[in-house]
Amino acid sequence: MAGRPRGVDDSVILRAAVEVIGRMGPAGLTLAAVADEVGLVPGTLVQRFGSKRGLLVALAARSVQDAGTLHERARERHESPLAALRTLAVESMSDVSTPRTYANHLAFLCMDLTDPELHEHALAVHQARGRAIEALLRAAVSAGELRDDTDTAALTGSVQTAIAGAGLTWALDRRGTLPERLREEIDTVLAPHIRRRT
Amino acid sequence: MAGRPRGVDDSVILRAAVEVIGRMGPAGLTLAAVADEVGLVPGTLVQRFGSKRGLLVALAARSVQDAGTLHERARERHESPLAALRTLAVESMSDVSTPRTYANHLAFLCMDLTDPELHEHALAVHQARGRAIEALLRAAVSAGELRDDTDTAALTGSVQTAIAGAGLTWALDRRGTLPERLREEIDTVLAPHIRRRT
DNA sequence: TATTAGTAAATGCACGTTCATTTACTAATG
DNA sequence: CATTAGTAAATGAACGTGCATTTACTAATA
């Protein structure tokens, strides 16, 4: 026997939480703020997720899923592997609109890093992205976009630190747009391995 | 004229605050925690810094000073410019001992980024480091360690994102030590510009 | 003794959480 | 078909806690 149907889906609540984090930062992520965003009351969120921490765990779990689908989509595109790589980097930041938004999301990520269970999820996201990047780099080698002697594993690490560094420095100096900065840094890292046109 | 002398200096309190941030993260940075660390009582800190935010501002101001002196020291060393650059990067992280510690400090930095006044300080630190890096890069060109045609301004940006990225990815995957990771990333960025031995 | 540093207790606020109650729906039953 | 029982979702008003801040007081110097 079904009871009263849910007014808002879990996914809507989690999206709202992401929104709140971007606007208010981790300290502003209160159950009241999230509940307000979706037209519920704080206690309801506790009942549905068990606790505030339960909501955070659900949020982290969703991030892992998202990272996976992002990977899928990037591979399905019919662009060149390197173009797909740049797109992947930019789209993985779809929640970020301003430097402050990025700073808030980053602060939240850091908060996760101090909690064992949440760190597991954050690491999973990071590794999923790493695998996606390396797959695209390999494809780029196969497609002749990168030199044959490219160490794709090492280059993957460089690309990831470039992406992370671009975001953080952008949050600090606030120059230009994030997509610009990401593309710049990625291209700089890739440059030595780009295959010259024959 | 002067009344009762202060039992603990401001600098000691600020150092304690840094310590607490590293251990507990921004959320754990309470006046009680800091006061406890130095053997005072929360109310005293409010009286001395005006408010909790006052303490944060003082902390940010001290970071700006520190960044400057770090620059000075790096230039005074009798090492090669590139060696000094690597040392500068490592020593600018002297408060960081574990990935978690770094994550906590980073989260605190991000917190600052959402406050206009604190962001000013954080930006000043970032720019001071940028100037130090560029000075060392220029010196490296003069000393023949880097190629003459090196675009030191552009390379400065790359080095800064490499440093930032190395820290963040290290906090995520927790592989190796931070100094190792920093040196690795910096060397990768510098590699294309290193002058071959004659 | 005048002045400043420090304390201890009190205040007020924001937050997560709990719980009795109400609402909205489904599934039996006559 | 109309009615009733059953159930899950949501509410709103508590409650307790942890925190920054205030206030009245004490301690230590010059």
Automatic annotation (TrEMBL), chains A, B:
Domain HTH tetR-type: 7-67
Top-rank taxon: Bacteria
DNA-binding region: 30-49
InterPro entries: Homeodomain-like_sf, HTH-type_TetR-like_transc_reg, HTH_TetR, Tet_transcr_reg_TetR-rel_C_sf, TetR_C
GO MF terms, alphabetically ordered: DNA-binding transcription factor activity; transcription cis-regulatory region binding
Keyword Transferase part of the UniProt annotation: no
This protein's UniProt keywords: DNA-binding, Transcription, Transcription regulation
Name this protein carries in UniProt: TetR/AcrR family transcriptional regulator
Native source organism of the sequence: Actinomadura spongiicola
Biological classification of the source: Bacteria, Bacillati, Actinomycetota, Actinomycetes, Streptosporangiales
